[in-house]
Design a protein that fits this description.
Pfam families: Alpha-E, CP_ATPgrasp_2. This is DUF403 domain-containing protein. Helix content is about 45%, strand content about 10%. It is an alpha+beta fold. A hairpin with an 8-residue loop joins strand 1 (about 85) and strand 2 (about 95).
Length: about 850
Amino acid sequence: MGEGAVEEDDRAGKAQGQREGQRRLAQWVRDYRRLPGIPDEFLGPDGAPRAVWGRFFDAFGALAPDEIERRFGMADRHLREAGVTYRAPGDGADRPWSLSHLPLLIDEADWKQLSAGITQRAELLELVLRDIYGEGRLVAEGALPAAAIAGSPEYLRPVCGVPPPGGRYLSLYAADVGRGPDGRWWVLGDRTQAPSGAGYALENRLVLSRAFSDLYKSMNVPRVAPFFEAFRDSLRARADRDEPRIGVLTPGSFSETYFEHATLARYLGFLLVEGDDLAVSDDRVHIRTVAGLKRLDVLLRRVDSNSLDPLELDASSHLGVPGLIDVLRKDGVVVANMPGSGVLEARAMLGFLPALSRRLLGEELKMPHIATWWCGQRIARDEVLSRLDEVAIEGAYGRGVPGFDSNGPVLASELDAAGRQRLIDSISARGMDYVGQEVVRLSTMPVWEQGQITPRPFVLRVFAAATADGWAIMPGGFCRIAEQADARAVSMGDGARAADVWVVSEKKVATATLLPATDKVRIRRIAGVLPSRAADNLFWLGRYLERAEATLRLVRALGSPSGPNKGTAASLQSAERIQRLLVAWGAISQASRATPGRVTAEALQNAERFGSALSLVRAAQRTATSLRERLSPDAWQVITEMAERLAVEVEDDDSVLSAAELTLQELASFAGLAQENMNRAAGWRFLDVGRRTERAINTARFARQFAYDEAGDEDLDILLTLVDSQITYRSRYLLAPILAPVRDLAVLDSYNPRSVAFQVATLNEHIAALPSLKEHGLIERPQRLALAVQAMLTTAEAEKLEVKSLFSLEQDLLSLAEAIGLHYFPHGPNASRPEKLTGLA
C-alpha cells in the first residue's frame, strides 16, 4: 500500500472517530437543560455550548465508552487507595471523598477577570484588618459601625494593637464565588479565618490529571505547583531566621478536614502539629520532640482563632497553645492567618465593602457580591422588613439564623404566620444579629450521571496567597457540587461532591513542580524533628500491627487442617491452650469456647472484642490516620486493605484461614515497606521499637504457654509455628521438637530474627541511637532496663530456663515498654516531658 493510501486511511479513521464522538456527545446531552433564569457553565446565554466545553467534549467523546468507565474507575480507585476522606460536622467516622468525574472548565479570559477581582478583594480585606486591629480610623470616622465589628465573636480584643509578626494579617485568602444573574462572577462569601480546601484541590488535581492525562495536557491547564511554592516561600520569608521551622497547626484527627491538613504538611514539607505538641518558653513557641524542645518559627493554623490560646481566649479550648497571644505581642512567632482575621467572614461586613473599596483603594469593586443589608442599622433594617418576602435572612455572624433551627438562610415566605412574626420580632429587637440578602440560586455546571450529562449547582472557592510579589492566585480552585438541582448553598457536610477546576489556555503551559532548583537547596541528610506525639503514634502503630500478627498466627495454628483441634488428646490440650491465650488477649469471649467452630472466626473479625485481628488492625488504622503526613501512600493502602478484608464476614473455616493468610502477607508487606522505604531517622526507630517490643512480649508469652517444663511434641511444634522458626529448627536438628533447643531458638538465639533475644538486641541499638534527654551523663531508664534484659538473655542457658523465669522475662519486657512511653511520649502531668529534662534548641 502506498504512502498516500495510508494517509487517506488515517484521515478516514479520524473522521470516523470524530463522527462517533459527536454521536456520543449528542446522546449524553440530549436531556441537558439550563434551569430557568440560572447561568450555566456548559451552555451560554444563547443556549449553545461554550467554546471551552466544546473543545473538551470533542476530545472526551473520542474515548470509547468502556475506556471512559475504566478511567472513571481509576480515579475512584486512587481516591479509595489514598484514603482521601472528610468528616461532616457531628459524624463519628470519616466519609470517603466524592469527586465528580468531569472538571469545572474556565477559559483563560474569564479566569483573568476572576483573578483580578480576587486580588483586589484580598488587598482590600488586608487593609481593613490593619485598621480594625490598628488605628481604628474607619470606625472613628464613621465608615464602619463599631457594632458590626464588636458584635462578631471573631473580633479578638487581646490582639488589638499587636502588629502581625511577619507583616501580614492575611497569608491565605479564599472567596466562594458563583455566576450571578448577569453571567458575571459574584462573591458569595469571604474566607479569612483559615481557608480550607486548597489541599483537597491539590488531591482532586492529582486524581483527575492522572485518569485523563492526555486530555489534561491537550487542554493546556496550568499547574498548581507554582502557587504552593510561592505560598511556601512567602511563609519562609516572614520568619526571622534563614532556615525556619514551619508547622501546620491542626485540631487533630477528628477534625472535619484532617486529611487536608496532612496533605498540605506533606506536600509543603511542614510539620503537622497539634496544640499539645507545642509549648511556650522564653517568648517563643517550641515543639515538644523526642530530642527536647525545638523552636518553631511559623504556624499555618487550621484552628479557629478563639481556640488558639486558653489563657487569653476560650479557656475551655484544648486545641491551642497557652501563652501564644503573648508570644505574638513579643514578635516571637508568625501565625498565618493572624488570629482575629475571621472577623471579616461576618456577613455583616459585606454591605460596607463597596464604600470601603472606594475609600481605601480609590476604585470600585471589580467583582460584586450578594446584595446585603445589615439590620444593625435602622435604615437597612427597615428596608429588610419592608421586603421580607423578597430577601433571605441570615445570621450576621457565623452559620445559622439566631432563634431558628437552620444551618442555612430563612425565607419568610416559607414560614407559617407564627414563625414569620417571631422572625420580625427578633429582627426588630436585636437587628445587629441578622442580615437580609438577595435570594441567590447557584449557577450550574455539567456532571456525569449514569451515562448522561446533567446540570448541578456549584460553588467555586478561589485561593490567593500573599507573596513578596503581591497576591498569587491558584490557577484552579476547590469546587463543590450540590446533589439537589435547586440548592441555595453547598457544603461537603450536606453530601456534596467535589470537582477539579481546569483553567483552559490556548497556549502550551510549562511543566511545574514544587521541587526547587538544586542550586538553591542546602544539602542535608537529617530528616528533621519528630514531635513526641508522632513518635507515640508510630510506637503504637508498630505495637498494634504486631499484636494483630500474633492473633492471626494463633488463628492459623488453631484452624489449620493439621492443627491441634484434630487427633489426639495432646492435640486437644494444645487447642485448649491456644483458646485460653485468645481469651486472655481479648480476642474471644470465654463463652465462645463452647462453640469451637466459631472461635477462629470470632478471633479474626469480632469488632466487639478488642483483641480480635479486626479490632487491632482498625486500631492501627486509627493511629495511622494521625500519621498521614509521615506514611507513604503504599503503606496507608496496605493498612486500609487489611481493615477492609477483615471486615468481610467469613463463611467457613477455609475462609477464615484464607483471610488470616492474606492479612499476614499484607503485614509482611507493611514491614517490608517500613524497612526499605522509611528514612533511618527517629520516626522509623519508634515504629520499629513498637514492633520489636510487642514481638518480644508476645514471643515470651508464647514460650511460657507452649514451652513449659512438661511440654510435648505437639505444644513445642505449635511454638515453632507461632514464631515462624520451623525451617530453622529442622535445618539444625534432625529430631522432633525437644524442649531445650526449642526454648533456645525462640528465646535466647540472637541470630533468629523472631527470638526474644534478637528483639531486645535491636531495641538496645534503637534506644542507644535515640536522643538523650538528660545532661548529667547517667544512663536513662529505658536503656538501663533494655541492657539488663539483654544481659540476662545473653547469660541464660536454655536447659535452665523455666516457666517462672519466662514469666519474669515477660514482666521485664512490659516494664521496658512502659518506660519507653513515659520517657518519650506526652502522657500527662506524670510524664517526663522533654522540656523538663533538657535545654532548648
